[in-house]
Design brief:
This protein has helices at 2-7, 25-30, 36-45, 59-87, 123-128, 144-157, 180-192, 209-219, and strands at 14-17, 90-96, 134-138, 164-173, 176-177, 198-202. It has 220 residues and is of the alpha/beta class. Strand 2, helix 5 (123-128) and strand 3 form a beta-alpha-beta unit.
Length: 220
């Protein structure tokens, strides 16, 4: 981050941390990390290197592993925060849509949009601690009600923080695609909720003329 900030000094307004978390929550439950560091910590605290299925469900051990994970990821955010503060840059993050218990899709090809905290990404705590300037939630749900419920959760969770809120919209992702009409509905909902910033994700980076027309309507 420091090399980027220094190399592009005067050309940047901020830094975005896109993948600031560990592996997918659902997959890590069945396939715990077996790196040398994790195995060493488990041997010291738990008496074994790799947990069995039963051991992975023990609350105390689960807590300890999540505490290690969250501390490591938070430290990475804090280190980048020092750099952005030094160079007068804004720091934003791509936040998992399901922070704790939001409606989610835990089946392939999505495999869930969190929970964020079990991936080491406690973005609510980071926002409240002033570690980030903006939170960009990856609310890519194509089901309208899921999108609404996740959005309302995000607004509630960030209401006491100093960070700006930017809602993600998934135009085309592993969750499916939105029609121009559905895209318009998303923007209308954001306007209804007084959300002034949005981030559009599309895996193709191609926008149809109809979608571009919707974007122009709400950008004006």
């Amino acid at each position: 981050a420091a090399r980027v900030a220094e190399g592009y000094a005067g050309q940047l307004c901020g830094v975005q941390l896109d993948f600031i978390r560990s592996a997918n929550s659902l997959l890590s439950l069945d396939f715990p990390c077996e790196c040398e560091g994790c195995c060493a910590l488990r041997r010291k605290y738990f008496g074994y290197a790799v947990p069995t299925a039963a051991q992975r469900c023990e609350p105390a051990c689960r807590y300890k592993e999540l505490a290690w994970l969250n501390a490591n990821v938070r430290a990475a955010v804090a280190a980048v925060r020092e750099v952005t503060a030094q160079y007068g840059l804004e720091l934003s993050i791509a936040a998992r849509s399901n922070y704790l218990n939001s409606p989610d899709i835990p089946v392939p090809p999505v495999w869930g949009l969190g929970p964020a905290v079990t991936e080491g990404q406690d973005w609510v705590e980071w926002a409240e601690a002033g570690l980030v300037d903006a939170v960009v939630t990856m609310n890519y749900h194509t089901q309208g009600e899921y999108f609404r419920q996740n959005l309302e959760d995000h607004l509630r969770l960030l209401q006491d923080s100093r960070a700006r809120f930017c809602s993600g919209i998934g135009l085309a992702s592993s969750m499916g695609e939105l029609s121009p009409g559905q895209l318009r509905e998303r923007f209308m909902l954001l306007r209804e909720k007084a959300v002034t910033e949005a981030y559009i994700f599309t895996k193709t980076n191609i926008y149809s003329p109809e979608c571009l027309a919707v974007l122009r309507d709400f950008a004006s």
